[in-house]
Amino acid sequence: MLLAVLILILVGVVGLYEWPIHEYALTPGDATPVAPLVKIKGVASETHHGTIMLTDVYLTSLNGWQWAIMHFESHVQFVGADELVEPGVPTDELQAQGYLEMSDSKQAAEVTAFDALGWKTPSTPTGAIVNSVVLPSPARGAGIQVADEIVGVNSTSVDSACSLIVAMHSIPAGTTVHLSIKRARISSTGVITYRSPSTVTLKTAKAPAGIGPSGCAGVAGVGTSYLGVSIEDGATYRLPARVSINTANIGGPSAGLAMTLTLIDKLSRQSISGDQPIAATGTIDIHGNVGDVGGVAEKTVAVQRAGAKYFFVPQVEVAKAKGAAQPGLKIIGVTTLAQTLRDLRALGGVAPKPLTPPR
Predict the structure, then answer these.
(1) Using CA atoms, how far apart are residues 83 and 59, in angstroms rounded to an integer?
(2) Is the pTM of this model over 0.85?
(3) How far apart are CA 292 and CA 93, in angstroms?
(4) Which residues pair with 203 in a beta bridge?
(5) 11, 123, 184, 326: which is deepest, by most CB within 10 A?
(6) Which fold is adopted by the domain 2-62+104-121+238-346?
(7) What is the distance, to the nearest Å, from the Cα of residue 249 to the centroid of all Cα atoms in its chain?
(8) How would CATH label the architecture of 123-236?
(9) Are the C-beta atoms of residues 85 and 61 closer than 8 Å to each other?
(10) What φ, ψ does residue 49 adopt, rounded to 5°?
């Protein structure tokens, strides 16, 4: 009888290991000082005594056994696969999407930081960058992947998401098209590089029900052809210096605010943080807007462990952060970079003054 019970227990444990539950766990990651990750060439920079930290979370795909065990642990948020990707998009794209989001975040941080210090950063549109590929779809069948940049349709050049939509709008479903694509290569640590354009040939499908208007000027209604990709604008910016931020193995857009603050700090004469240990999370766009992110409660745990005194979070995430914070950590909600800089001055920091005057 005892042997039978033990066998049943063993079978149950093995079953839990093999039970696919399509759930993920978010747990506290690291709070990492950003300044040591940054290199700037072409203008003067300086590292001040204060510490500005980015923070991340660990995202773990769970089997049934892990799911059961982690319910006994603290500081765990369970997330369904359907909360991490758009409908029809497979979870095997998550890592590439995270690295693309980090690449976009670094670009926005660089542009926003130099703009905040008085520099002008002219931009040049480059194409339509793929940020997800539906399965099944013509694009998936043709091997198009996340971060690939579409720069042409047949004989028409493409330099933005809307220009791709305009070029495809009048093409009937079932038509063979030739896309000019700069293939992305994503290294094992998340660095994205691009090859010279090559041609990908595919046959478009009929647009599925439920797709709404694109919102692009000059395009009425929904096009008849369907590629099965979501896209964003590609652009390059002429910065006054070469900036490198080493974010190896870190994906997602949530370090945008922390990277922006660090760049401003390093390019400034004095510490904008008042030489205090602070942490920040939140997306940043090229207009200086701070957007919400996930896993704020778990990030709060990480920054508290790292010794931060202040944690800047998107305003909509303040309640979650305060719910996870212990005494000694002050949560500050922000919506823009300009507000964040004002709040830092109230804590003893100074207004940014560039070491190298803008030209």
Answers:
(1) 13
(2) yes
(3) 21
(4) 176
(5) 184
(6) Ribosomal Protein S5; domain 2 (3.30.230)
(7) 12
(8) Roll (2.30)
(9) no
(10) -75, -25
